[in-house]
Write a structure and sequence with these properties.
Blueprint (H helix, E strand, L loop, with lengths): L5 E8 L2 E7 L8 E11 L1 H9 L7 H5 L10 E8 L11 E4 L6 E5 L3 E3 L6 H4 L2 H14 L6 E5 L3 H12 L4 E5 L6 H7 L3 E3 L7 H7 L7 E4 L6 H8 L5 E4 L14 H5 L2 E4 L11 H13 L9 E5 L4 H10 L6 E5 L3
Amino acid sequence: MFTPPAQRLVFHAKQHVEVESFELPELTDGEICVKCQYSLMSTGTENIVFNRLFDAGTHWDHWVQYPFYPGYAAAGIVEKVSPDVTTVSPGDRVVYRAGHSSHAVLKAAACYPVPKGIPSESAIWFALAKIAFHGAHAAQYRLGDTVLIIGAGPIGQMSLRWARAAGALRIIVVDPVAERSGISTAGGAHTYLASTADLVRDDVLAANDGQLPGVIIDSTGHPAAFAAALNLAAQHGRVVILGDTGQPARQALTCDVIMKGLSITGVHDGHQLQGWNEGTMTALFFPLVQDKRFSLEGLNSHIFTPAQCMEAYTTANRDRGRTMGILFDWNT
């Protein structure tokens, strides 16, 4: 269908990634073909998969089978539509959920037009924003709340931006990487604590008039952060587990749960909410970006060609603290 053939990234084994060619299927009713401009690495999810950092018997273990095709966020240009499609046309820019690949054949209903004025390399963050939205929905923010976010990686950055858009009075971000403070402050953080969550209780109290926050978002996926999140929550506070750890057996309840009467909610990309699906979340996300109430500036830290995929994943592992948005450029 294409010359040269379509290409995609594939994991054939632990810590091994390469580019392979593949044939695209013919369009059927309701489908479109998209030429990818950029795909965005989800550094948390994809590095757990790349390094097999998960326990046997977990949902990760059942999911990661070889060959494994990584990625789930892309932006591109519509090349072809089936005759019954009227929502998009060839030449339109869209974002969609798919792996790292040069082309994708998808249902038109699963592709979302990008408004003018939003670059594709920014619009692509819609997928991680959607994941973080689940955390915001579970957190039940109220105007004037203090929100503490553990982890200032890509999901943490999306989480703090939702908290800001929702009217949180104070947003405290905790992450041991000091270099992430600038982008966190630009995204709406009032206080950035360059430390691990188990060491910041006194600093959190100082930043919040002597009170512990009522809402805690753990975006890290690190099992040790769970107990620290419980310790940092206020009486009758809400703790949202947004990071999906590969080692859930290491997450342990503490006496804080009963003594404080805490509510704990786990959220995941695969959850479906009544009234809030990928389309409705994206329809909210783009206007907030256009109105500059949801800043995406400076989030992309690295761009690689598909041929540099091994270097990209090596960088994500070796320099995790200096990476944020890692893009694959499929424009060539």
